[in-house]
């Protein structure tokens, strides 16, 4: 049994199939199969049912999952603490929703590197459920995300409200959400706000779940879509995209969730969070 086998087992569970796990791990499917076979042989138990539609846990796999998570967690924490490079006196493990790297994670990282050169920082992208799990497992110290975390030992607060504005590749476009409209899925609250503002809107021809994908599509092929103001602002100023002035503006709340017992020892932390906020946003308690 080795760490690669444990990581592969956990990835198969999370991805739902050996094929999907191989893509995430950037290895061949045969490598994933070999690792799973070796792990099951070492334990003397089949851990997952493998079938055409994917992979599901056996009873033994369900019992083993928590031990695999703890073993991987302990290794990561030990490696992080033991292998801290010379000249560094601390490390911050940061988890970010994918859409929150540009203009938020970037500023936080830049601030730490410029103002706190003795602090090493590791940043990991993930979906909300992954960030919640990583926090509970102690794999990350801080998460910047769209939902607060409840639980003993965690502190959640609003970092800022992410303003979502409609922009178009055409100057003077109206908010009629025509055939070139790209629906950018910004989560549950955005869906509710969008449905209330555009009750007669038919399904968009293109739906994307990442703002940067939408930026790429709008710049390459044209169209309109809702983007965070922090992403759209520079593109509007450069004339590459144009604001739709009569369109409603929506918002999505951004939270910072941290392990209170860890971050209370970081004198630089409050200033780093302040630096992460978009310049025109206000902090909230």
Explain what the structure shows.
With 285 residues, the chain is of the alpha/beta class. The protein contains 11 helices and 11 strands. The protein has 3 domains: 3-81, Arc Repressor Mutant, subunit A; 88-160 and 253-276, D-Maltodextrin-Binding Protein, domain 2 (3-Layer(aba) Sandwich), CATH 3.40.190; 162-251, 3-Layer(aba) Sandwich (D-Maltodextrin-Binding Protein, domain 2), CATH 3.40.190. 45% of the residues lie in helices and 23% in strands. The strands form 2 sheets. Strands 3, 4, 5, 6, 7, 8, 9, 10 and 11 form a 9-stranded mixed sheet that branches. A two-stranded antiparallel ribbon has the order 1-2. Helix 1 crosses helix 2 (18-25), helix 1 packs across helix 3 (29-43) and helix 2 (18-25) packs across helix 3 (29-43). The chain is globular and about 65 Å long. The mean pLDDT is 90.
Topology:
Layout: H1 3-15, H2 18-25, H3 29-43, E1 48-51, E2 54-57, H4 59-82, E3 90-96, H5 101-115, E4 119-125, H6 128-137, E5 142-145, E6 154-168, E7 181-184, H7 188-197, E8 206-208, H8 211-221, E9 224-228, H9 229-237, E10 242-243, E11 250-259, H10 260-263, H11 269-276
Helix pairs in contact: 1-2, 1-3, 1-4, 2-3, 5-11
Q: Concise description?
A:
With 285 residues, the chain is of the alpha/beta class.
């Amino acid at each position: 049994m080795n760490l690669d086998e444990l990581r592969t087992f956990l990835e198969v569970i999370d991805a739902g199939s050996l094929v999907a796990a191989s893509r995430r791990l950037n290895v061949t499917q045969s490598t994933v199969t070999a690792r799973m076979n070796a792990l099951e042989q070492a334990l003397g138990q089949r851990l997952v049912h493998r079938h055409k539609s994917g992979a599901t846990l056996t009873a033994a796999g369900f019992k083993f999952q928590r031990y695999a998570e703890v073993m991987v967690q302990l290794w990561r924490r030990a490696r992080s603490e033991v292998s801290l490079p010379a000249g560094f006196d601390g490390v911050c493990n940061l988890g970010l929703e994918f859409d929150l790297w540009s203009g938020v994670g970037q500023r936080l990282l830049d601030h730490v590197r410029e103002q706190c050169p003795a602090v090493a920082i590791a940043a990991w992208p993930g979906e909300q459920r992954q960030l919640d799990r990583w926090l509970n497992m102690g794999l990350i110290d801080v998460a910047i995300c769209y939902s607060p975390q409840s639980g003993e030992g965690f502190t959640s607060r609003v970092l800022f409200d992410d303003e979502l504005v409609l922009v178009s590749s055409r100057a003077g476009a109206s908010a009629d959400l025509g055939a070139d409209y790209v629906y950018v899925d910004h989560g549950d609250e955005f869906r509710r706000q969008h449905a209330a503002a555009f009750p007669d809107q038919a399904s968009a021809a293109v739906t994307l779940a990442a703002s940067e994908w939408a930026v790429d599509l709008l710049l390459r092929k044209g169209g309109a879509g809702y983007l965070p103001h922090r992403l759209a602002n520079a593109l509007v100023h450069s004339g590459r995209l144009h604001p739709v002035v009569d369109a409603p503006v929506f918002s999505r709340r951004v939270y910072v969730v941290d392990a209170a017992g860890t971050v209370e020892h970081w004198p630089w932390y409050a200033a780093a969070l302040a630096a992460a906020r978009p310049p025109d946003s206000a902090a909230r308690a």
